[in-house]
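Why should sequence recovery work at all? Because a backbone constrains its sequence more than one might expect. Tight turns favour small or flexible residues, buried strands favour hydrophobic ones, and helices have their own preferences. The token representation captures these environments compactly. In the example below, the structure is given first.
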């Protein structure tokens, strides 16, 4: 799937899609999350999105938040 994304979006965009550790996730890291959610250990979890992105969304949201004007 990432190969298709890379071909369509280009290396510059793909390079911006990294986690807080400064690297792209590996397929195994996605698979670990899926295996957990489909196991007995994840049986009680439902109705939520599990972001397996190395913190890239959190970092982006935090970066956007610190650039906001103060509320007061």
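From this structural description, the recovered sequence reads:
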């Amino acid at each position: 799937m990432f190969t298709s994304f890379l071909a369509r979006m280009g290396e510059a965009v793909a390079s911006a899609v990294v986690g807080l550790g400064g690297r792209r996730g590996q397929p195994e890291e996605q698979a670990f999350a899926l295996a957990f959610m489909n196991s007995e250990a994840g049986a009680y979890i439902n109705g939520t999105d599990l972001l397996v992105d190395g913190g890239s969304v959190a970092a982006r949201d935090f970066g956007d938040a610190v650039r906001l004007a103060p509320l007061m």
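A few observations help interpret the result. The longest helix spans residues 27-37.
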